[in-house]
Amino acid sequence: MSKSKGWKIVCINCGKETETELPDSKCKHCGDLLEISISAKVGRRALFEGRGPGIWRFGAALPFFSGTIPISLGEGGTPLVRLEHVGLGLDLDNLYAKNDGQNPTGSFKDRGIAVAVTRAKSLGARTLVCASTGNTAASLAAYGAKAGIKAVVVVPKSGVASGKLGQAFAYGARVFGVEGTFDDALRRVLDLVKGDEGFYLMNSLNPFRIEGQKVAAFEIYEQLGRVPDYLVLPVGNAGNISAIWKGFKELRANGITRSVPKMVGVQADGAAPFAKAFVSRRKIEALKEPHTVASAIKIGNPVSWKKAMRAIEESGGTVLTVSDHEIMKARTELGAREGLLVEAASAAPFAALRKLKLSKSAKVVCVATGNGLKDLADHKSEQAIETFDSGVSIVNTLGFA
Ligand code: F0G
């Protein structure tokens, strides 16, 4: 390993190091997933007293690319919000949302895309490419624009939330549609990057994405003043659960904490290949036609399932599924009772809480992964504008005349 870099790329299976990622971000020896290993121990002071905005405050624990200034739109540093009303209904005294919908493009993706785009810039990449259910596309488009690198996003032709597509166009990306699902889009993108060196892969197979996303764990620890008992989040391609787990594991490995949270992954009933694999403790079996109202996690073949399975097993967590009806009910409740508007996929962890059988005092953090403005136009509201009649009639309807 070159000492000056302070990090290396290693395979999660055979443990061998690669000097630089291959186009498809897989190990050149055995074809498994790669991860970044940070060589130095990072103590409490180095980690929490760093300077810089958002995720870059935690630069001591991030890969450093000599000569390249971080490409940033102000990602990370999102609020941890206490949900006392929803918590009361669930008999939970300490329920929180990590509101990653407040990132620059409205989802947690910005944390990882910022680091991976910075890596791409340091390598002199010419075109960035990803497959996406919408949020990665929006994020990549924005950070590509900021970095001055072309962005190509490949999405399923139908089903992507209108707000996310609108963002990708607004940030100037080229948007391509494929028949089929996210899994079909990713397959096509992997073929593309393997066949043409001009493209740099920005899906969460790219281990630099995971580095940016792991920072959520550092922030949650700092904001809560301790490690939560449970960390609950939606699982699609299974990158984010792997990333946040890596963050907590690094806190433990660096002697900053002794405990780690139980990681709980949540999938939609109709798109739950990972939940099925977890129950049977088997390899993932791809689901051909995933379906759910939560289009962000409508994924049949999660590529990072192996990392995610380790996260859940090592942490003593679990995987749950929820129905579309439960997802939409949770979303409505978060909006109307907490003032927290999340997109459908991000409501899934909240919908799963009843099934977890938690003690009243448990400290529970759900990750609100995406902003509800993104898919608001795609879900019909039963409410309509009322006719403004007179002040008297409004007072009468509200019932406090
Ligand atoms: N929540 C939201 C809002 C997402 O957009 C995604 C994934 C997830 C959760 C699941 O995260 O894939 O790391 O397990 N969206 C990807 C995309 C697939 O293309 O935007 P994961």
Identify the notable features of this structure and list them briefly:
six-stranded mixed sheet; four-stranded parallel sheet; alpha/beta; 13 helices; binds ligand F0G; 401 residues; single chain; Rossmann fold; globular
Strand-helix topology:
Elements (H helix, E strand, L loop, with lengths): L6 E5 L5 E2 L15 E5 L5 H5 L31 E3 L1 H6 L4 E6 L9 H15 L3 E5 L3 H13 L2 E7 L5 H9 L3 E5 L3 H14 L3 E3 L5 H18 L5 E5 L4 H15 L8 E7 L4 H8 L24 H11 L2 E5 L1 H15 L5 H13 L6 E6 L22 H8 L3
Parallel strand pairs: 5-13, 6-7, 6-9, 7-8, 10-11, 10-13, 11-12
Antiparallel strand pairs: 1-2, 1-3, 4-5
Helix pairs in contact: 3-4, 3-7, 4-5, 7-8, 8-10, 11-12
The structure holds ligand F0G.
Ligand F0G binds next to helix 4, helix 8 and helix 12.
Give the structure's gist in a few sentences.
This protein is an alpha/beta fold.
Number of strands: 13
Percentage of residues assigned to helices: 25-40%
Count of DSSP H/I helices:
13
Strand percentage: 15-25%
CATH architecture title of the domain at 80-104 and 210-378: 3-Layer(aba) Sandwich
Bound molecules: ligand F0G
Span of the ends, CA to CA: 75 Å
Output mean pLDDT: 95
Explain what you see.
With 401 residues, this protein is α/β, with parallel strands linked by helices. The chain has a domain at 80-104 and 210-378: Rossmann fold (3-Layer(aba) Sandwich), CATH 3.40.50. The chain has 13 helices and 13 strands. The protein has helices spanning 44-48, 84-89, 109-123, 135-147, 162-170, 182-195, 207-224, 239-253, 273-280, 305-315, 324-338, 344-356, 391-398, and strands at residues 7-11, 17-18, 34-38, 80-82, 94-99, 127-131, 150-156, 174-178, 199-201, 230-234, 262-268, 318-322, 363-368. It has a six-stranded mixed β-sheet with strand order 4-5-13-10-11-12, with helices on both faces. A four-stranded parallel β-sheet has the order 8-7-6-9, sandwiched between helices. Strands 2-1-3 form a three-stranded antiparallel β-sheet. α7 packs across α8 (239-253) and α8 (239-253) packs across α10 (305-315). The model has no long low-confidence stretch (mean pLDDT 95). The protein binds ligand F0G. Ligand F0G binds at residues 107, 109, 132-136, 204, 234-240, 296-297, 343, 345-346, 369-370. Ligand F0G is lined by residues 107, 109, 132-136, 204, 234-240, 296-297, 343, 345-346, 369-370.
